[in-house]
Every structure is written in C-alpha cells, then in structure tokens.
Amino acid sequence: MPRKNRRRSEPEPRRSTAMDSTIVDGPGGRFQVRRITGSAAEKTYRCPGCDLEIRPGTPHTVAWSDGGGGADRRHWHTGCWNARDRRRPGHYR
Ligand SMILES: [Zn+2]
Question: Which of 16, 42, 45, 89 has its CA 20 to 30 A from that of 35?
Fold first, then answer.
C-alpha cells in the first residue's frame, strides 16, 4: 500500500555542499560543521581523529572554527568527529 501521496515528481533540491553547514558549540569552541556526501567526497583526506585516511566516496564531516575563515578546515570521519568530545570528559559545561 502506498506510504504517502506521491507528489508530482519534483526535481530533487540540489544538495549544495557549500551551504549545508551548521554551527556547533563545543568544548573546543564554536565550529562550523558540514556534512559531505559520498558523491561530494572526491579526494582522500586524513582524519585528525584517528589519523586514518578518508577515502573518496566516503561520507564524512568537515569542521572548522567559526570565524577562522576556514583556514583550519579539517575532514573527519563522522564518527570521529562525533566522538571527539567523549575523549575529554570533564570539559562539559
Ligand atoms: Zn577518523
């Protein structure tokens, strides 16, 4: 049975990797965080969380300090980024 009414096929909103960032406040300060889809990941990056490579095609997370203009942009495995706070217990406000 139909799960929901299908609308006429709308063009899927284009996923802009350039605008999909959110602000996150954490122990290390305020960061901008952007999710990178697998299709947008075209290069190999090194994750600062685990020091392993993020292969092309791997959805991951980019983060940089807010106000830093992106100069300290880092590509993280999403899991490593999410886990980074857990390594520093006691720093929560
Ligand atoms: Zn990692």
Answer: 89
* Confidence (pLDDT) at 93: 43
Q: Is residue 33 part of a domain?
A: yes
What is the number of domains present in the chain? 1
User: What's the 91 CA to ligand 1 centre distance in angstroms?
Assistant: 21
In a domain, 10, yes or no: no
How many Å lie between the centroid of ligand 1 and the Cα of residue 1? 41
Q: Which domain holds residue 81?
A: 21-86
Question: What's the 3-state SS for the chain?
Answer: CCCCCCCCCCCCCCCCCCCCEEEEEECCEEEEEEEECHHHCCCCEECCCCCCEECCCCCEEEEEECCCCCCCCEEECHHHHHHHHHHCCCCCC
CA–centroid distance, residue 54 to ligand 1 (Å): 7
Q: What is the pTM of this model?
A: 0.69
pLDDT tens digit string along 53-76?
A: 999 999 999 999 988 888 899 999
